[in-house]
Design a protein that fits this description.
CATH architecture: 3-Layer(aba) Sandwich
Strand content: 5-15%
Mean pLDDT: 92
Low-confidence stretches: 1-5
Number of domains: 1
Number of helices: 19
CATH class: Alpha Beta
Helix content: 40-55%
Shape: globular
Largest sheet: 5 strands, parallel
CATH superfamily: P-loop containing nucleotide triphosphate hydrolases
Radius of gyration: 20 Å
Order of helices and strands: HHHEHEHHHHHHHEHEHHEHHHHH
Length: 393
């Protein structure tokens, strides 16, 4: 099957076999069944145009080829399975709460190991320390960036990306074929209902751990620094897999979070569909995100993971003094703030001031967001963390 043809499970698997040089072993755990669910939802729900069919097909192929490569490399290189993941740092929280820039800042610490966009896109073979800054896969990844900029003008004002910027775990989860990423990029509510209510997140984290083992086998740091709000879907499984995790939980006025995320999702979906409803997007994601947010709070309240350490970061504190907030995170987790780390972080902050890539402007009324109604729906969250309303832009 070539890109752009009708979406089909067998066609994706066959093309992935060809692109991977004949690999067929997808390893244990579900993959084909959720792939079928996604394809059914793309066909029935997504209102894809020709570009959308091309992009969605390529995304499924990317994750399938990568899954095959992870499994094959694990057979070829036994040292991968011997890797231990110790006290990883996870950044979780609602969308648009400062998680991306916080992740990028923390990644500047020479002791940190964050997944880079290029190695997440092209993970095989395992990256190596000696060539990590000049791996040819960096240029392969960079070659795709101008294409993205043409498709998504102004996207960097919302979510800066680059081959050597950190990537988030919601993308890694694609190799488990269970991730909210797909419903952000395409309108696939039937598939997302399965992600929300039926998916086995224990399997997602089994794959996630194997991915971290793979990426650190030949290039490790003192600690992993990882990020995505998608961890709220399976927080208990994340903590069961990494019981000594250090977790930064980010918080912001949900009106701002919901409106900004609806804006981002609308922009992304318009690339692959000529039928995008911003009001529907806001209502749909507000309901879903409230559910998983409260789930994450319930997991924390259970105190079932006594070796995990949480730190609550407030968006307003972070934008007031980014480096000071990072210092507080390091103190909470008992991490050393070396001079090299501080210098690198401060340099990154100075080089990436707010608005460097443009200003992301949005208004609640564009998306049918009624501030008082949203704050009422999130009242338990707002009260629990003492959040205050942000001023309108």
């Amino acid at each position: 099957m070539t890109s752009g043809e009708s979406l089909d499970v067998e066609g994706v698997l066959e093309e992935a076999r060809v692109r991977s040089g004949g690999l067929e072993d997808l390893g244990p755990g579900p993959f084909v069944e959720p792939l079928g669910r996604l394809i059914d939802s793309l066909r029935g729900d997504a209102h894809l145009n020709d570009v959308g069919r091309l992009i969605s097909n390529e995304r499924m192929l990317l994750h399938t080829v990568n899954r095959l490569a992870y499994v094959n490399d694990r057979k070829r290189f036994p040292e991968i399975a011997e890797q231990r993941i110790v006290k990883p740092v996870f950044i979780v929280g609602m969308p648009r709460t400062g998680t991306t820039i916080l992740h990028d800042i923390c990644a500047q610490d020479p002791a940190s190991r964050a997944p880079m966009t290029w190695e997440v896109m092209f993970p095989s073979p395992p990256p190596e320390t000696d060539s990590f800054e000049r791996d040819p896969r960096i240029d392969r990844c960079a070659a795709l960036m101008p294409q993205r900029d043409a498709q998504l003008p102004g996207f960097d004002a919302i979510h800066p990306m680059g081959p050597q910027l950190s990537q988030e775990c919601v993308v890694l989860m694609g190799e488990a074929m269970c991730t909210p990423l797909f419903h952000n990029q395409f309108r696939v509510p039937t598939y997302q209902d399965w992600v929300d209510d039926e998916a086995d997140w224990a399997d997602v984290y089994a794959v996630h751990e194997q991915q971290l083992q793979h990426l650190q086998a030949r290039h490790r740091g003192d600690r992993w620094v990882l990020k995505t709000g998608a961890h709220l879907w399976g927080l208990e499984h994340m903590l069961a897999t990494y019981p000594d995790a250090r977790v930064v939980f980010t918080h912001r006025d949900p009106v701002k979070s919901m409106t900004s995320y609806a804006s981002l999702t609308s922009i992304v979906r318009r690339v692959g569909s000529d039928d995008v409803d911003p009001v529907e997007i806001a209502g749909d994601w507000t309901r879903r995100l409230r559910k998983v947010l409260m789930h994450g709070i319930d997991v924390r309240r259970s105190n079932a993971y006594p070796d995990a350490v949480f730190y609550d970061m407030y968006f307003q504190d972070f934008i007031t003094d980014q480096f000071r907030e990072v210092e507080k995170i390091y103190d909470a987790f008992g991490l050393p703030m070396t001079n090299a780390a501080a210098d690198a972080m401060r340099a990154f902050i100075d080089d990436n001031p707010p608005g460097k890539h443009g200003i992301h402007r949005y208004a609640p009324e564009e998306f049918g967001v009624v501030p008082d109604r949203v704050r009422a729906e999130f009242a338990a969250y707002i009260d629990h963390f003492g959040l205050v309303p942000e001023a309108a832009q």
